[in-house]
C-alpha cells in the first residue's frame, strides 16, 4: 500500500493512476482540524509519498518515496462532507508485484450496497492501543446510507448524504479506526478490485450500531476524471 507523510503526520492514500501520477485521498488528512477553513491547507511541497509500504518499522527493498507536485482540494469540502482530494506526483509510480493502481468504478451508477468489501490501513486495532506497524485488512459489508444516518444523526447530528458510503458491521468489532483515514474500501467486481470508498470518519473504533462512513467515490468520478484530464500533461 501507500503512505503519505508531512513532518510527523502519517496516513494512507490510494494510487489510482500510475501513468499520469494521480493519487486520491480524504481531504481532512491535509488539515490540522476537520472544521478548519480550506485555505489553511498545506501546499504540495510539504508532503511526500511512500509506495510499497507494508511494515512501517522497517524500510523494505521495494519501497520508494515520491515528492508531490500538486494538490487538488475538492472545492465544496467542509467538515464531514465532500471529504476528497487528489495529489499529483512529480514522476510516475513504478509498478511492480507490490505496487499497482486500483481501478476506479466505471460509472457513477455503480452501487456497492450489500457487497462484502475490504478496508485496509495502519490504524489502531483497538481504541486504547497505538496504530499498527504492519498493514491491516478487514472484511466488512456495505450498507444502505440510511443505516448510518439513523445511527449518526440522532447522536452526533451528522447527516449522511449521497456523497457518503456506509460500511462495517452492525454488531461492531470489525471496521476502521484512528489512523486508517485516507485508506481504501475496495470491492471486487469480476476479477478486478474497484475503489468504492475512502475511509473518512466513524464513531470511534467499530462500535456496535455504528458502521463507519467513507467518501463515496462514484459521487466524485466526474470531478476526478476532469482533474486527471486537465492536468495530465502539466
TrEMBL record:
It comes from the Eukaryota. GO terms for molecular function: serine-type endopeptidase activity. Residues 38-229 form the Peptidase S1 domain. SMART domains: Tryp_SPc. Pfam families: Trypsin. Keywords: Disulfide bond. InterPro entries: Peptidase_S1_PA, Peptidase_S1_PA_chymotrypsin, Peptidase_S1A, Trypsin_dom, TRYPSIN_SER. One of its GO terms (biological process) is proteolysis. Signal peptide: none annotated. Belongs to the peptidase S1 family. CLIP subfamily. PANTHER family: ACROSIN-RELATED, HYALIN. This is Testisin-like protein. The lineage of its organism: Eukaryota, Metazoa, Ecdysozoa, Arthropoda, Chelicerata.
Amino acid at each position: 500500500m501507500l503512505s503519505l507523510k508531512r513532518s510527523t503526520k502519517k496516513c494512507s492514500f490510494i494510487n489510482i493512476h500510475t501513468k499520469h501520477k494521480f493519487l486520491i485521498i480524504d481531504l481532512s488528512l491535509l488539515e490540522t482540524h476537520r472544521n478548519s477553513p480550506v485555505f489553511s491547507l498545506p501546499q504540495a511541497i510539504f508532503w511526500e509519498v511512500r509506495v510499497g509500504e507494508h511494515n512501517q518499522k522497517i524500510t523494505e527493498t521495494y519501497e520508494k518515496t515520491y515528492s508531490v507536485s500538486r494538490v487538488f482540494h475538492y472545492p465544496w469540502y467542509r467538515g464531514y462532507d465532500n471529504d476528497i482530494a487528489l495529489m499529483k506526483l512529480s514522476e510516475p509510480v513504478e509498478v511492480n508485484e507490490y505496487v499497482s493502481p486500483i481501478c476506479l468504478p466505471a460509472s457513477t451508477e455503480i452501487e456497492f450496497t450489500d457487497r462484502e468489501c475490504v478496508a485496509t490501513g495502519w490504524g489502531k486495532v483497538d481504541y486504547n492501543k497505538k496504530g499498527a506497524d504492519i498493514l491491516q485488512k478487514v472484511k466488512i459489508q456495505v450498507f444502505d446510507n440510511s443505516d448510518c444516518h439513523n445511527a449518526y444523526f440522532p447522536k452526533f447530528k451528522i447527516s449522511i448524504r449521497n456523497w457518503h458510503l456506509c460500511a462495517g458491521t452492525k454488531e461492531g468489532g470489525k471496521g476502521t479506526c484512528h489512523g486508517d483515514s485516507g485508506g481504501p474500501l475496495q470491492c471486487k467486481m469480476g476479477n478486478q478490485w474497484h475503489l468504492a470508498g475512502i475511509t473518512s470518519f466513524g464513531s470511534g473504533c467499530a462500535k456496535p450500531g455504528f458502521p463507519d462512513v467513507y467518501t463515496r467515490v462514484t459521487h466524485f468520478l466526474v470531478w476526478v476524471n476532469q482533474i486527471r484530464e486537465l492536468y495530465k500533461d502539466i
